[in-house]
Write a structure and sequence with these properties.
By secondary structure, the chain is of the alpha+beta class. It folds into two domains: 232 residues, Rossmann fold, CATH 3.40.50; 113 residues, OB fold (Dihydrolipoamide Acetyltransferase, E2P) (Beta Barrel), CATH 2.40.50.100. The protein contains nine helices and 19 strands. The strands form four sheets. The chain has a six-stranded mixed β-sheet, with helices on both faces. A five-stranded antiparallel β-sheet has the order 2-1-4-5-6, with helices on one face. Strands 14-18-15-16-17 form a five-stranded antiparallel β-sheet. The longest helix has 16 residues. The relative contact order is 0.12.
């Protein structure tokens, strides 16, 4: 195990209490809304933000334990960090930025610069080492920042929203580059992001933090198939409700009821995929166990699909083809009917 940490700290309104671990060769994505504590977690693991309680162990060595008055400073931890703001030295050229960590470790200047040139080439910046950091584009600066973090051959690489300031095309290119770099590393990576695409592309496992606490953790497929918070459900694009089950009857928190095909009892989550919900202009006929009236609140066109937000007895988002939305002449403020088969209602314990 490269990283084992129990981190407790308070900063302003944030009370962070998180346990995180990463094995050799593993990438763990940390997802969560703004203000949930993701970046504070990175600062804590790197040593930039001392913890109040708990411990941080890297490669079997305790680098921080407040109870034992133990603290290894950031520059002596086997960690590389890539920030979303790049944080390059503007007065240095690209190669000297990459070589900075090596020079701090007393590597001779010619050797450090030669290694920096190799790393720049590996991230698609071959022949660009002499260019001033201030003259590089955002994507180029991020490539330099990645090369700088890799230069010290860290046992743990921390990436704090590394794609946030990049355009879509550059983001995809750097994702691919990172995936290639990760394949040749035997250390661990912690990737902080708010974009599930980053996790899909790069992570072996994910943890979800909300309000300074781990809400859900596991392999990505497990987390997304059974979300346990509205935040995760919104990332995946599904409807999620907390409910009390009695047989096939589901009493939703906040009002409304649904019927499922399978029986359950007690506190449960109820998951409904938007594509399972049918929209009608008049009361439908058929075998659907769940039928109710609603009002169109908003429509969002996504290529050949349209997501329709509808309020009513049960507030939901339905997804239909754009052609169907046009045929139904759906508009905000207009009434409609919804139907949902009981077999399309998934129930699992809270």
């Amino acid at each position: 195990m490269i990283l084992e940490a129990e981190i407790g700290l308070r900063r302003g309104d944030l009370d962070l209490d998180v346990t995180i671990a990463a094995e050799a060769g593993e990438t763990v994505a940390v997802l969560g809304p703004n203000g949930s504590g993701k970046s504070t977690l990175v600062s804590a693991v790197s040593g930039l933000c001392p913890i109040d309680r708990g411990h941080i162990t890297l490669d079997g060595m305790i680098v921080e334990d407040p109870a034992a008055a133990s603290f290894v400073p950031p520059e002596k931890r086997p960690i590389g960090v890539v920030f979303q703001e790049h944080r390059l030295f503007p007065h240095l050229d690209a190669a000297d930025n990459v070589a900075f960590g090596l020079r701090c470790r007393k590597v001779p200047a010619p050797q450090a610069r030669s290694r920096a040139m190799e790393l720049l080439a590996s991230v698609g910046m071959e022949g660009r080492g002499d260019e001033a950091a201030a003259n590089l584009s955002g994507g180029e600066r991020q490539r330099v920042a990645i090369a700088r973090a890799l230069a010290v051959e860290p046992r743990l690489l921390l990436l704090d929203e590394p794609f946030a300031a990049l355009d879509a095309g550059t983001r995809g290119s750097i994702r691919r580059e990172l995936r290639r770099q990760f394949s040749g590393m035997d250390g661990s990576r912690i990737l902080v992001t708010h974009d599930p695409l980053d996790a899909f592309a790069l992570a072996d496992r994910v943890i979800v933090i909300e309000g300074g606490r781990v809400i859900q953790a596991g392999h990505l497929g497990d987390v997304t198939s059974r979300p346990r918070s509205r935040y995760v459900a919104d990332l995946v694009g599904v409807n999620l409700f907390a409910a009390v089950a009695s047989g096939t009857d589901l009493a939703l928190e906040g009002g409304g009821r649904l019927t499922s095909a399978e029986t359950a009892s007690g506190d449960v989550f109820v998951l409904v995929h938007p594509r399972s919900i049918a929209i009608h202009r008049s009361a439908p006929e058929g075998s659907a166990r769940n039928v109710w009236r609603g009002t169109v609140e908003a429509l969002d066109l996504e290529a050949d699909r349209t997501r329709v937000r509808i309020t009513g007895q049960v507030d939901v988002t339905a997804e239909i083809t754009t052609r169907s939305a046009t045929d139904l002449d759906l508009r905000p403020g207009e009434e409609c009917w919804l139907s949902l088969k009981a077999t399309e209602v998934e129930v699992y314990p809270r």
